[in-house]
Batch of 2 targets.
Target 1
Amino acid sequence: MNSQTKSQFIAVASITSELSAVMVVAKEISLAAANAKAIAFRAGDKAKGFQPITDFINELAKETIELVTNINVYALLLYRLTVNEYRRTAAYNRFEQVAKLANGAVYADSMQEPITQARTIMQDCQRQFKRDVTQLLGQLEAVMHHARAARVIAANSRIEASQAGEYLQSLQAVAESVDKAAHTIHDNVQRCRIALSIYRNS
Amino acid sequence: MKMTKIYEGAHQWVMFGRDDNKPDNIIDSNQYIVRTANKCLLLEPGGTELFAPMMAAVLHHAPVDQITDLFASHQDPDVISSLGLWDQALSNAKLHAPALWEGYIRNFGCESIEYVPIPDNGETIKIESVELQIIPAHYLHSPCGFHVYDPQAKILMCGSVGSAFEGTGAPVFVERFDVHVEKMRYYHQRMMPSNQAKRAWIDRVRNLDIDILAPQHGRMFKGDDVKRFLDWFDSLQVGTGV
């Protein structure tokens, strides 16, 4: 296996690993939203501005979970494609080796068709991989967008929390946890994007 | 890759092996082809590492599109791990291999090749006008294995039975049986698990008219050495690993 194939395998495998961490964090946001809703309910008028924010947080978490679930399915397809490309490339290289070794054999020419076919399939796989990576990067961008939105919500939450009297600390803790989670999602997804970006369609 | 024609009649048998360029840490193995006018059966196609020299050697005898049939006596990687490569090279081929091992052998890659499962009691396969008997050889050494007998050529391709391991410079036929037995003894005692299975196989094989015993590793046996081998194997206690 050459170093490019190795790094391709690692890049694809790292998506699943990074995204499973994102999934955990998104679930934490969902929990934080439920917690915030309960606090806001108890705070009544003091946290009036906070109540709609909790719905936003919850919705954002749900959408992120859904997106990541879809991306994971896609990442699995990308992994299979990587395996297939590896197998096709290995076969093509062996067929080339056959052609060299068969030099002078009566039926050496009959190897040309399998070689041509293997080359075409290998190139198709490479193109398909680039197309799929480009699409996956788009989906990852959507998760990044959610992470950025979560950070804005966290900032708004802090402002609303400051007017919540004795509930200030609890609501600020919620805002902090949303902000921290958004950070983690952003960083993890960014690492996926960096790992994959070298394979995208130029 | 050394090529030795071992039968020439209306069809041919060719033995391939002793590949000088194979990696040192991979055992040497024998491959065989049965070549008819328009078809070619490849017996024990070999491991992945062997694919390129093997395919190149076959091209001296048959074009790619006439390699129509493969046979694997059992599931071991030195027998058939090259399947995934043959699968991508051959557009219209069948693999005859034990039914019991189908789910295992498919791990090597078998998408375009048709897997033709061999039932436990064996069968006959036909390559154009050549009828080959698929002889059960279970527990020798694989729990499910088969050998190929060609009554016309009087050749028995006997898989692991009769195998020995030597350098790539070794002759293809046994020259002095009494010297050769020491190269086979440990392998047979350690790899063959059952005296009962061995006896059943010997009883069956003694009824066949055999000129050449062609194992998957090491030298082939011809003439009187065929009987010598059967007698020696008969008297050998196997299953010594426990």
Target 2
Amino acid sequence: MKKLFTNSIEINSNLKTVTDILVNAFTLAKWNYAISEVTEVSVNEFAIHRDEPAINQDEIMTVEQNDNEVAYVSKGGKLEYQLTFQTFQTNNHVLVTENFYILNDFSLPETLILPITKRAFNQNLKALKKMIEV
Amino acid sequence: MKDLGTVIKELRKDKKLTQKELAEGICAQSMLSAIENNVYVPNANLLIKLATKLEVSLDQVSLATNFPISSKYNFNDKVDDLCNNHQYQELYDFLMQDKVLDNLKTSLQMQAYYYYLGVAQIQTNAISEAKQSLNLSLAEVNPKHPNTLGRLAYMAIGYVHSLENQKDLAEEYINKAFRNWDEFSYEENQNALYYLAALIYFKLNDYQDSTAYIADGIGFIAKHNSHYMLANCYFLLARLALVAHNDDERLEANRRKDLFTELYGENIFEEF
């Protein structure tokens, strides 16, 4: 498991609100705009579908929660990955730090895929903040 | 499948450059050697500099094999030559000659003729004329089962719409180009369809969709044991990586600015 990048964001909210949203896979489409469909296939396991062209048009996502960390493990797409979210309460903010790990041998060079993937996930974090702070 | 290092090495040899000549002003020769031997993967900046020196263009695509516009070999050779050397004004002038027009006999020759005319018009900025020519090339194409040239014409119209920033229309034509795709038998020119779809999304600033088509394209090219358009795919990916990086930096800078404003309750001076 190789770490590709880290993104972080401060959200004006509390730890419970942020964590509840992160562990609820059905809210994913609200802050990851590429996702068009989330279906539960078994306990804590979800089928994710994107209508638009995507590296992972379909993937199976497992959601796990441990202490102050939520982890998504994606399998079945071209790019298999783990995305962990660590959350810390600071005054009126919650600091969310996401780490992205690659789990398989992906066909494109990591040096080139890194900035594209990092930007896409950073935009998702921005959308998460916007959704929670509204 | 040929990897990035092999692709760079072959392009360098095609241009008759030594490692020293290509590396000059860009990186150490030892680094280029490591790249070509797949020991080191270059970052986006380095790859773009190499692509520029190797004269790989984003917007000018040569087909693996050109389509005949005539039963006269010299006419087809002329088109081949002008296309491969990206001499589009000369291509336009050649295609507009009466002797060429008078020699169009079959529907496939007409299809190819109007396709090349459309491409020449795109490259010489006659955009609305290009759309008319490309539509003429599609006149006898079955839209449910287009041949490869028909698919390329649909993609070229999509490209024109991306130049006009018309995303919905551009996407519509990408979808037409890939209609009933799985049923189709392989031709090397089809590699270009993935690249062009990625290029259209790149023009529309949709980096994720562009990356998705590049990933599919590289997979498709590998599956058919080809290398045509592989260099273009890698170099477009490098361009995508660079703009994504710059965009991400801007996002981070704005976030830091917002945090500063929130902490100190005042706006940062935007202008000095």
